[in-house]
Design brief:
Strand content: 15-25%
CATH class: Alpha Beta
Helix content: 40-55%
Order of helices and strands: HHEEEHEHEHEEEEH
Radius of gyration: 26 Å
Mean pLDDT: 88
CATH topology: Glutaredoxin
CATH architecture: 3-Layer(aba) Sandwich
Number of domains: 1
Shape: elongated
Structural class: alpha+beta
Distance between the termini: 67 Å
Bound molecules: nickel (II) ion
Low-confidence stretches: 35-41
Number of strands: 9
Length: 204
């Protein structure tokens, strides 16, 4: 009996020690190996205050879009292929959402404010979607917006070409921003409208 009594506490101690070690291992794994869940879902810091002018010449800030999801794409109206493809994809994705599509505003921000005046944008965006918003501004305003969205752009001018004969190099990413103006998801310009609509639905 004495022996048994003596073994019991030691077995209990072994169990306690085992549980303690397991807890420490799990905590250490979560701390050092697994990234905290909050960091994963927050994603990169994309977006921020913008101050631009829409296709009707009306000043626009991010506050004008609060309460709506926004699909944002930076490009320029003279773009030969990638921009039209991206904007068609955005428009198709919104139409695929049916009635829910009304919760999403498609926004096109030019990286070529020199040529993309409000008038030029108005003509252009209406080809893609009746609710598409076209934004332009001064070069400084456009630069600030591009920086907020981590979009790169640069004017590429061929030697000997006319001053207004140039193309714009630019990042081609479609961003989905939430009703609170924060980043939700991004899509490559060649993501299909079905894939984008499906992803948006997950947030609605
Ligand atoms: Ni383009």
């Amino acid at each position: 009996m004495r022996k048994r009594r003596g073994r019991r506490p030691s077995r209990l101690a072994a169990i306690v020690a085992g549980v303690a070690i397991a807890v420490v291992v799990v905590l250490a794994w979560r701390h050092y190996l697994a990234p905290p869940a909050a960091t994963v879902s927050r994603g990169p810091t994309i977006g921020g205050p913008i101050s631009l002018v829409d296709q009707d010449g009306k000043p626009v800030t991010g506050a004008d879009f609060r309460g709506h999801f926004v699909l944002v794409y930076f490009g320029y109206t003279f773009c030969p292929d990638v921009c039209p493809t991206s904007l068609s994809t955005m428009a198709d994705a919104i139409d695929l959402l049916g009635e829910d599509g009304k919760k999403v505003i498609p926004v096109f921000i030019t990286v070529d404010p020199e040529r993309d005046t409000p008038e030029q944008l108005k003509m252009y965006v209406s080809h893609f979607h009746p609710r598409m918003v076209g934004l332009t501004g001064t070069l400084e305003q456009v630069k600030a917006a591009a920086k907020a969205y981590r979009v790169y752009f640069a004017k590429v001018h061929e030697d000997g070409a006319d001053a207004d004969d140039y193309v714009m190099d630019h990042t081609s990413i479609i961003y989905l921003m939430g009703p609170d103006g924060t980043f939700r998801a991004h899509f490559s310009y060649d993501a299909g409208p079905e894939a984008i609509a499906k992803r948006i639905r997950e947030f609605l």
